[in-house]
Design a protein that fits this description.
single chain; mainly beta; five-stranded antiparallel β-sheet; binds beta-D-mannopyranose
Amino acid sequence: MSKYQMFAPALPNIPWQEKPACSINSPLWRYKDNPIIGRNPLEGVARIFNSAVMPYGEKFVGVFRGEQTNGVPYIYLGWSRDAIHWDFEKDKIPFVDEEGKPFMPIYAYDPRLVRVEDTYYIIWCQDFYGAAIGVAKTQDFKTFVRVENPFLPFNRNAVLFPRKVHGNFMMMSRPSDSGHTPFGDIFISESPDMVYWGRHRHVMSRGNNWWEGLKIGGGAAPIETSEGWLLFYHGVTNTCNGYVYSIGGAILDIDNPSIVKYRCQNYLLTPEEWFEERGFVPNVTFPCATLHDPDTGRIAVFYGAADSYVGLAFGNLDEIIDYIKDNSKVTADDTEIGRR
Ligand code: BMA
């Protein structure tokens, strides 16, 4: 009998591997055949990382950050039977605007994929006179309609909630600068229609713990649980050899997600394996999606590794929530409603 509940559709075909006996210091453990996506996965694409997946019918679908051989990132669609072995469509996602005309961002990276009601939303970072958030919607993964940019530049790491709260769409984001932002907190905004966004609130500050002392950013779409919204996010520290990106865990209030109920002072995953420590940008673990099954409490976390690969990690809901609660340290910035 599980201690906590997840509220999401059942996913009996979730990818899974049991916890190895040697797993200590975190409720997450890595898939033993990581990375699941290696270099040069597709003609014209050198690396795939920071990507998001979802169940779709009997299969899985994903939106993948593909770094083209000209160095420019774009989003590619992929399909899989087991969420581990992926086939990619060779062409970039062909977005159209609301009039049906082709829309091609100058660049597009770090996509998230979230279903709200009967629509799938892709949220990514694109140029809007600087880095900003792009959004598109689809119902069939054939037609992708790009909608208005939700926020002003500069902004990254937008994560949509999988259901409306008090009748409104909820989206977290991380306002930033135009470069490799050396600062940043997570904020949340709401919208009745995915076009007009407001009631902005502060969710979490950087700086609580050393591993996330420089900046933080939303990661996977939050999972609805009996304890609140379970959020996997990224936290960054600065070292004499550059930034290190780790995966953190927090639980947000179910009705007022700008309130952080629990925030784990320890990272849940940090670069340790060769494919996380070595690559185009070393020392990066960057979560963008989870698959999760309420019947078994299983959670699979998909994360980008070293801006070069995709890794997969597993955990159990009960253990993850207990670990976050047992190691929780929240500040006034976390627990306040976040309006000033
Ligand atoms: C961030 C984003 C991510 C990337 C990370 C590490 O600023 O651009 O896409 O994984 O840097 O390079």
